[in-house]
Amino acid sequence: MFPEPAGLPERLRGRTLVMGVVNVTPDSFSDGGRYFGIDAAIGRAHDLVRDGADIVDVGGESTRPGATRLDPAEELARIEPVVRALAADGIAVSIDTMNASTAAAAAAAGALIVNDVSGGLADPAMLPTVADLGMPYICMHWRGHAERMNDLAVYDDVVEEVATELASRLEACSRAGVDVDRVVLDPGIGFAKEAHHNWALLRRLDHLAGLGRPILIGASRKRFLGSLLADPVSDEPRPTDDRDVATAAVSAIAARDGVWAVRVHDVAGSRDAVAVGSAWRQG
Ligand code: PMM
Predict the structure, then answer these.
(1) How close is the Cα of 233 to the center of ligand 1, in Å?
(2) pLDDT digits (tens, 9 = 90+) for 177-235
(3) Can 222 be counted among the known catalytic residues?
(4) Residue 203 CB: number of other CB atoms within 10 A?
(5) Distance, CA 218 to ligand 1 centroid (Å)?
(6) In the chain, which ranges are continuous DSSP H helix?
(7) How far apart (Å, rounded) are the C-alpha atoms in residues 43 and 22?
(8) In the chain, what percentage of residues exceed pLDDT 90?
(9) Pocket lining for ligand 1, CB < 6 angstroms
(10) Distances (CA, A) of 229 to 53, 191, 198, 235, 237
(11) pTM for this model (two decimals)
């Protein structure tokens, strides 16, 4: 096992965790407005917990390649009631946001973890806010916002460069007063990375572990899995919602390699996969 972040309850310790994804994003609002979207998100989170999610990751802003930014006030209106309801039901919630104000409001609503795909780079107030909140912080490797991240996928040695850039974010955390014992690092699969970059990073998780912090892997349903499984005749990528077996395979191997957590949409598959990978590691 890589190290674990300090500051989590006992029930979230000692094993690789499965984090289930709840996106409170516009498509979930399409037929009935915001309240419908919020209720749907809460229902989805309960389904994920029933499937075995240890943590539910609630996000209001899409970070997909090409996505445009969301007004933080709208982000907050989407996520706050969801976080509040889930926390009241005793569910461990992480808040997936690049905005310090959203992180702080989610913490007040009961979130346990801040998950920042920008590693503190998108909002200069994020690291000082996390320092004040004293919460576990997932610090992802990031080079720029979604609309330009494909242009930033340029590396001589992706494993070295991601490790170096994550180490410098860890220093920034420390300078801002964040307790580095509470920091989890994430190589940012699919963020300013082409498929071969993602595979190189997954193959060398041991190198990232050398930074001495727990690791989270978010590979679920991502494009590199779609292209891996492309139709042999048409070369069309595998559709997004048909990538869960491949996602579970990544989860099994990541657990075998001792990661702290995997972030996935299909929790049931990855829960079993993590059980296999963890048993394999310990066997
Ligand atoms: N990926 C997405 C969103 N949030 N957070 C972390 N820590 N790591 C990730 O890889 C990550 C993330 C994008 O995935 P989605 O749009 O399918 O939720």
Answers:
(1) 30
(2) 999 999 999 999 999 999 999 999 999 999 999 999 999 999 999 999 999 999 999 99
(3) yes
(4) 12
(5) 6
(6) 33-50, 72-88, 100-108, 126-133, 158-175, 195-203, 205-209, 223-228, 244-256, 267-282
(7) 10
(8) 86
(9) 21, 23, 62-64, 96, 115, 117, 138, 140, 186, 188-189, 216, 218, 221, 263
(10) 26, 20, 15, 9, 7
(11) 0.96
CA–centroid distance, 177 to ligand 1, in Å, is 25
Location of structure tokens 């498929």: 195
Distance between alpha carbon 26 and the CA centroid of its chain, in Å? 19
Predicted confidence (pLDDT) per residue in 139-171, tens digit: 999 999 988 888 999 999 999 999 999 999 999
**Catalytically annotated residue among 222, 238, 243, 256:** 222
Whole-angstrom Cα distance, residue 37 to residue 29? 5
263 is catalytic: yes
29, pLDDT greater than 60: no
Q: Which of 17, 48, 63, 244 to mutate to test the pocket of ligand 1 (most atoms within 8 A of CB)?
A: 63
